[in-house]
Amino acid sequence: MNDLPEQIYRELIPTDLPALLDLDAIVQAELKERKHQYFIKQYLSEYKAKELEHLFDRKRHIILGAFHNNSLNGTLRLTVNQDELGKFHKILGTDHKLGYLGHGMVRSEYRGNDIMTRLVARAMDEAGTEECASLVTLVRPDNKPGLGVATKLWFDYIKQIQVAKRPAFVFSKEL
Ligand SMILES: CC(C)(COP(=O)(O)OP(=O)(O)OC[C@H]1O[C@@H](n2cnc3c(N)ncnc32)[C@H](O)[C@@H]1OP(=O)(O)O)[C@@H](O)C(=O)NCCC(=O)NCCS
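# coenzyme A complex -> structure
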């Protein structure tokens, strides 16, 4: 663990979008080999302007961030818009309200310092407040840090599915 400056954790607001896209671009460039990874830029281009408008709408997404000196060092999106989560309702065989965790990323020089652990803990609190019965997330089988986070936080492995023609593990956690 590095000698890490204390991070401030808070929800992102629309004026944080440039910082969010910067972090997204840095992590995407670093993970060039993961062409299939679903980054925020692709997410926004798929949904176009409509989704940009909705990205910071709490009824749909709650985007959390870890900051130090106004620099965004980690982020995690909690989606609570059930219209986007039909696939997961089917997989889990439930019609309970779900929260989906996506776009989790931490600046490389800050990794291994519990930033994602804390972001997930906050997302769990938010999901509880939003009356979600459980959380669901996807991790690629070759993503060791991603699998490590899911395991450390006691998410249950549900099943393997195909996403963008590649395998992904579905993990879930009851709240
Ligand atoms: C995955 C990622 C978000 C983890 O962020 P992080 O802040 O470093 O994670 P944490 O410090 O909270 O680590 C939590 C646990 O994950 C596991 N973990 C973290 N990094 C790991 C690594 N490089 N290898 C194996 N396990 C790892 C450990 O179990 C760790 O707990 P421990 O430190 O008590 O052993 C970060 O590596 C990242 O941004 N990766 C690139 C983007 C990505 O792959 N996102 C995830 C998509 S599912």
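# post-check
The helical segments are 17-30, 40-55, 86-92, 115-129, 144-152.
The first helix runs from residue 17 to 30.
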